[in-house]
Amino acid sequence: MDKKRWRDLEPRQRRAIVIGGAVQATLALGAWYDLSHRPRELVNGPKAMWALVIAINFIGPIVYFRFGRHLQEPAEPGAGDE
User: Residue 51's domain spans which residues?
Assistant: First the structure.
């Protein structure tokens, strides 16, 4: 079976590839931005590991947003002991 080249694809297939790539890039860039601006204490595990996980197509950024972040800041020791 011969490999298809870009020019051999139908316009609908080309659009799907471009849209899929844009979605992937947006997810990854958003996740890397969030990771780089999030304090270490608010990340579940090492930041370097999450940076690599985010590079996995589609699923990596989704996994990071679901499992890699603490959504709330941890309570300060002694808070509410009054």
Answer: 13-68
40 CB-side CA count, 13 A: 4
User: Taking the CA atoms of the chain, what radius of gyration do you get in angstroms?
Assistant: 19
| 30-82 pLDDT, tens digit each | 999 999 999 999 999 999 999 999 999 889 999 999 999 987 765 666 555 55
Residue 6 domain flag: no
Overall number of domains in the chain? 1
Asked if the structure places residue 25 within a domain, the reply is yes
pTM score, whole prediction: 0.76
Which residues, in sequence order, are CB contacts of 40 under 8 Å at separation 6+? 47
